[in-house]
Write a sequence for this structure.
């Protein structure tokens, strides 16, 4: 279903209208017996601009060096019911619109807006974002209250429990949580700051898939495992639902602790994808055997003929420093032999930073954040790009390699009840790992409301 809205300002006006609904009080989310049904909504409008920057040359997948603007708009309904004890069913329809820099999503490893993968142009598109069942079994650890929220019914849960999620959702709904750097609608916007940018998690082009994820909680420990569908073609929209042949597996172990009275968590995540992918070594051999050929997807498509295994390992840390300051760090390395399966063009990533609550200066609902991220490439991918190859997102026709470095800061300003306005700034050195281009400065303003 498509709605024609070609005026860029229209989604902003719609966001304001929907956000206004957030002013009205909702029903009691803390009923004594918990909710048997609930509906929550969100809307987010994110405008971004980069001024012109220097570039010694540009290629087919280079971000435009001239000044540009981009935007995304999303409106999501989170509908949930509890059909039986321990069972929850959720459905999330979402309307999206947006245009990236340079018309296509190209020219960076760490893209500047976490919502851009779901936006498909200047026509608002309505699609099914999630449809899944969550079943919880208590294991006798004592209950703790749960507040009503998106895809969460109010009630209580057992501290020791087993949870099974089945259906259509995102791997990141279950794995890689982090209190201070997770949601691009309310926290950091850059891809490398709300998950590992080198985590090539199985998903369709919008970031969702079909599969199952199990969670086991026991005292201070948690174990999460999942098998999810990837795309039929790398970074494509149609999902490959044959989970016996092509899939993404992940395992995450989490331990909660207290450091000088302040809570923190450490997580270790390993993942393994099986899909029909080209290796950069085969693609480089193809380029050398076809001099003068179009170096773009031809080399990758021509050598995408066998199933490959792609894998990675990462660590995720969050730590409360005091009641108002939180610290996060993520670091991951992938094997880097094959083309990108479903996320972005990064083979090793590091991101770290702080989130600071406004209680320090008398605005308890505000949050400020600052982060540093560094993305790197494997030797195989680097040699392919140096030879003039292009992959799905990057390829300047040549490469003077340096790690891509991103500084990001934001200030989430609470306007009224469930409405926030967030200015954001990102400074990107060596975009797409090329020291012959950039740096790029990106300025953003994000409007977000939830109710």
């Amino acid at each position: 279903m498509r709605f024609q809205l070609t005026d860029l300002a229209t989604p902003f006006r719609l966001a304001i209208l929907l956000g206004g609904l957030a002013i009205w009080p909702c029903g009691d989310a803390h009923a004594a017996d918990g909710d048997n049904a609930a509906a929550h909504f969100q809307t987010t409008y994110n405008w971004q601009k980069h001024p012109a920057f220097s570039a010694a040359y540009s290629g087919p997948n280079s971000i435009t060096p001239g000044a540009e603007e981009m935007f995304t708009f999303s409106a999501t309904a989170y509908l949930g019911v509890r059909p039986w004890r321990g069972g929850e069913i959720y459905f999330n329809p979402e309307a999206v619109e947006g245009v990236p820099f340079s018309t296509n999503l190209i020219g960076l490893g760490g893209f500047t807006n976490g919502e851009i993968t779901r936006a498909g142009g200047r026509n608002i598109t309505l699609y099914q974002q999630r449809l899944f069942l969550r079943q919880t079994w208590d294991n006798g650890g004592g209950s703790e209250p749960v507040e009503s929220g998106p895809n969460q019914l109010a009630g209580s849960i057992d501290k020791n429990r087993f949870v099974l999620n089945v259906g259509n959702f995102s791997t990141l709904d279950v794995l890689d949580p982090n209190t201070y750097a997770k949601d691009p609608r309310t926290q950091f916007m850059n891809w490398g700051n709300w998950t590992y940018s080198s985590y090539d998690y199985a998903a369709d082009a919008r970031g969702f898939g079909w599969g199952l994820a199990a969670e086991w909680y026991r005292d201070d420990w948690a174990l999460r495992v999942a098998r999810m569908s990837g795309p039929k073609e790398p970074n494509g929209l149609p999902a490959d639902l044959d989970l016996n042949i092509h899939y993404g597996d992940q395992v995450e172990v989490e331990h909660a602790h207290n450091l000088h009275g302040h809570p923190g968590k450490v997580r270790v995540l390993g993942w393994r994808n099986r899909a029909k992918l080209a290796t950069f070594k085969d693609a480089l051999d193809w380029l050398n055997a076809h001099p003068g050929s179009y170096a773009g997807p031809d080399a990758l498509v021509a050598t995408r003929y066998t199933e490959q295994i792609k894998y990675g390992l990462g660590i995720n840390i969050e730590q409360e420093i005091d009641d108002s300051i939180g610290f996060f760090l993520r670091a991951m390395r992938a094997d880097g032999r094959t083309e990108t399966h479903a996320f972005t063009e990064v083979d090793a990533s590091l991101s770290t930073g702080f989130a600071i609550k406004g209680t320090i200066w008398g605005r308890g609902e505000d949050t400020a954040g600052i982060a540093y991220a560094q993305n790197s490439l494997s030797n195989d991918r680097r040699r392919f790009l140096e030879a003039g190859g292009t992959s799905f997102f990057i390829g300047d026709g040549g490469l003077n390699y340096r790690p891509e470095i991103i500084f990001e800061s934001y200030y989430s300003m609470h306007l009224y009840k469930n409405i926030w306005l967030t200015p954001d700034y990102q400074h990107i050195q060596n975009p797409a790992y090329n020291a012959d281009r950039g740096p790029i400065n990106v300025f953003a303003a994000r409007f977000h409301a939830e109710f």
